[in-house]
Design a protein that fits this description.
With 325 residues, this protein is α/β, with parallel strands linked by helices. The protein folds into 3 domains: 64 residues, Beta Polymerase, domain 2 (2-Layer Sandwich), CATH 3.30.460; 144 residues, 3-Layer(aba) Sandwich (Rossmann fold), CATH 3.40.50.720; 78 residues, no CATH class. It is built from 11 helices and 6 strands. The longest helix has 69 residues. The radius of gyration is 36 Å and the shape is rod-shaped.
Length: 325
């Protein structure tokens, strides 16, 4: 129980707080439910897990601190520009990091994407996923002015974006700000570019500092969430123990009703036949008491003979008056 609550809260994930696992849990629950494999207890367990995960995320904010370089890049862009839908983004390169950034941007509704790469054919394969426009790396200076945001990650050993190209782009943009992210090692963007006005330049080192800080925040949130998990476990155990008790109570009630229905019917027949009602009711009560207590009485005598003190103590607790001094 504790484990599934921690999983739902993202506390057992490789990346603390990631929310993808909750979707997988819900999908698993739905599949099992459709197959008729979810009983009352398991269903309750999953619902408690989903509620616990939601509580942890809303209360601790554990998933609110990006811990991947690609996602951190997009979040920083949002901090600078706010809504990204109307912005033009140039992605330089066509590797894994660029693909991740492109996917994050596409998921957030960015429709104006340009991919610049040495291999145009390779870039076209990636561009097809996001509906992006493709240019060769040699044509990048000509379209650089369009970039509100530029993210670069190539395998070049020399900077592919020089200060002079950015100066020209800024003039064409009438000094509207540009957000440039260099996640390449070695650097794709010349360090002098960061000194230009209206340019926000972040390097992989800057992003890693942010990621490390966010990882620390997630770790703190995870510690805070442990108390919520403990409370959820205790609450579920209370429900489970109560459900177990209900099974025994149902048996007791069924046992009592079986005898009471029979004896009530017999008493009514006697009254209709002219027998004194008070006598019929007294007889019903005496017989019902004997029948209901017969099996427990037998079990208690057997327990006493076998020196089963535990069962005798339980029986004493069950029948001991609450107002006993």
């Amino acid at each position: 129980m504790r484990h599934i609550f921690r999983v739902a809260g993202g506390l057992e994930s490789l990346v603390l707080g990631e929310s993808q696992i909750v979707g997988q849990l819900k999908e698993s629950w739905q599949m099992a439910n459709q197959a008729g494999g979810v009983g009352k207890v398991l269903d309750r367990l999953f619902q408690c897990a989903f509620a616990t995960g939601k509580l942890i995320r809303s209360k601790t904010g554990i998933g609110g601190h990006p811990v991947s370089v690609a996602y951190t890049t997009i979040m920083l862009a949002k901090q600078i520009f706010g809504d990204l839908n109307s912005k033009t983004v140039i992605l330089v390169g066509a590797g894994e990091m660029i693909e991740l950034c492109g996917r994050h941007l596409h998921d957030r509704g960015v429709s104006s994407l340009i991919i610049a790469n040495r291999s145009v054919d390779h870039a076209k394969e990636l561009a097809a996923q996001f509906g992006a426009h493709v240019v060769s790396l040699s044509d990048l200076p000509a379209v650089l002015y369009k970039a509100d945001i530029l993210i670069s990650s190539t395998a070049s050993q020399e900077p592919v974006i020089q200060p002079e190209s950015v100066k020209i782009a800024l003039r064409q943009r009438r000094n509207q700000p540009m957000f440039l992210v260099d996640i390449a090692v070695p650097r794709d963007i010349h360090p002098e570019v960061g000194k230009l006005d209206n340019v926000y330049l972040y390097t992989i080192d800057d992003l890693r500092k942010v990621v490390d800080e966010n990882l620390s925040k997630r770790s703190e949130a995870a510690k805070a969430a442990s108390g919520d998990v403990d409370e959820s476990v205790q609450e579920f155990m209370r429900w489970l123990n109560s459900a177990r008790a209900a099974v025994y109570l149902q048996k007791m009630h069924k046992h009592a009703r079986m005898h009471s229905e029979e004896l009530v019917a017999k008493a009514l027949r006697k009254i209709k036949a002219g027998k004194d009602p008070e006598q019929a009711i007294n007889q019903l009560a005496n017989t019902l008491t004997k029948r209901i207590l017969h099996l427990p009485s037998t079990r208690l005598r057997q327990a006493a003979e076998a020196q089963d003190d535990e069962l005798l103590r339980v029986a004493n607790r069950l029948f001991e008056p609450e107002d006993k001094p």
